[in-house]
Amino acid sequence: METTKNFVQLRGTAAGEPVPSHENHGSMFYRFPLAVRRLSGQTDTLWVIATAEQLRRLSPLTGRRLTVEGQLRSFNNKSGRGSRLVISVFAQLLLPSEEPEDQNRIALQGVICKPPVLRRTPLGRCISDMMLAVNRRYGRADYLPCIAWGQVAMITGNMAVGESLSLEGRVQSRVYTKVVEGCAQERTAFEVSVMHLVEDECF
After folding, report:
1. Phi and psi angles of residue 117, each rounded to the nearest 5 degrees, phi first
2. Tens of pLDDT, residues 101-115
């Protein structure tokens, strides 16, 4: 039985032109922002990484409707002070789309790798923050921050490190303010908003 899963399906509008990301095994990779609307009308702006070959026929990219399928990846950026977890969608399929409705779906199966934090909002609603380790091939893993609400938060908030977790939800961006050396800086965090816990394979 498969013990890990990492599948993302997005449909949205490119919000900028690609910029170089990195080179690997002779292939050049680029990243660009994809704006995906929620049902509430709020927009998540997510970073997508794609190859030059995938992007070749999509120029100019800005404003183009796209379908993306791939995996949610993490990278520990150690440049500058401290380290920072960078989250992006690695595109395995990138196609133009004529569908008017945006889409944001993710299926993950991995292992809890840090003790979950269970807390409550000022209005008493339960929230659980957790870090999920999802294995890749070649012995690597992606460390993906997840957040759950309500009953799902109660379940995940009481899980132990090493327990397996399978879920479905969406990838979201969240703007927050961090004070650095007395100066307030606006930053964006990326996380998986958990909608359901699942036992069988989804998608």
Report:
1. -110, 115
2. 999 999 999 999 999
Residue 128 φ/ψ region, left for φ over 0, alpha for ψ in the -120 to 50 degree band, beta for the rest: beta
127 forms beta bridges with 119, 149
Tell which residue, 72, 23, 80, has the closest CA to residue 46.
72
Beta-carbon contacts of residue 188 (< 8 Å; ≥ 6 apart): 45, 173, 174, 175, 176
Are 198 and 133 in contact by the 8 Å Cβ rule? The answer is no
Q: What is the pTM of this model?
A: 0.90
Alpha helices in 146-201 (DSSP H): 150-157
C-alpha 29/C-alpha 163 separation (Å) is 34
Contact 92, 145 (CB under 8 A): no
